[in-house]
Amino acid sequence: MRLYMVAMDMHHEMHASGVNITIVTIAVILPVCAKLKFLEYGQSLHAYILKMGMELETLVGNALVSFYSKCGRVLDDAWIVFDMIPYKDVISWNSLIAGLSENGYISEALNLFYQMFQMDVMPNDATIVSILPICSLLENGWLYGKEIHGYALRSEFDKDLSVCNALMIHYLKVGDVTGAEYLFQKMKRRDLVTWNTLISGYAMNGWLSEAMIMFHNLFKSGMEPDSVTFISILPCCAQLLDLEEGKKIHSYILGHDFLSQNTLLGNALVNFYGKCGKLDKAFLCFEG
């Protein structure tokens, strides 16, 4: 957050010294305004853009769409700016689709996704990652996800790690654990998000033993778990009443400061010991 403020101060200094603000400057500073939720500052930049005749620049329009979307102004300001961009590229479409998806406008995001094809704009990997999370919320979400998966295969986006992770999350959310397992096995490269996705997905779908096996395989792979890993696996230990495994996890957490100071992980340990009937241990974890 401090670096964002430094960027804002530099922008103020630049403006005060009379240095011309270019479209690149706008494209850099608007995301900072979005991160800081500086709506009024971003709106003043928008006024400057209109004054200087920069509003027809695709780079500027894309930055404004993303800015307004992240500030929760997606249906009014973001969409108006999007409509005014004369030469929309795939980033223009992605910015609005992501904004609609993140703000809960599910049907609007999906309609815009299909509209891309009608306008001969081909979705890219970022589009797929933005649209997949809403598919699981739809009545026929599994089918929509399958359709998008098919497009990803035809476009060879299935080689992209973020796309594969998003597809796995989708399949697990709609209860297709086998589909997620198939993707996992086919992946040539995996990151911690990949492992955490399958572990939490197994847990979410009640496949507790499989979650435990995958957790152990994560260690065997040489990859280090994080707080998300343990927050996913501790409830499995509790439901299986596997006190010994939970104790091993607790010991590992205590040996790593960045984990032992995590409040959510502390809560997970309290719940684990409580469900295993070890109230004294639960209280000690609660006390920190």
UniProtKB/TrEMBL annotation:
Tell me which Gene Ontology terms the entry assigns under biological process: RNA modification
The molecular function terms of the Gene Ontology recorded here are: RNA binding
Asked whether the UniProt record includes Repeat among its keywords, one would answer yes
Which UniProt keywords are listed?
Repeat
From the UniProt record, list the PPR repeat ranges.
89-123, 191-225
Source organism superkingdom: Eukaryota
Q: Which InterPro entries match?
A: PPR_At4g14850-like_plant, PPR_rpt, TPR-like_helical_dom_sf
Kindly state one GO CC term assigned in the UniProt record: mitochondrion
Matching entries from NCBIfam families are given as: PPR
Q: State what protein this is by name.
A: Pentatricopeptide repeat-containing protein
The organism's lineage? Eukaryota, Viridiplantae, Streptophyta, Embryophyta, Tracheophyta
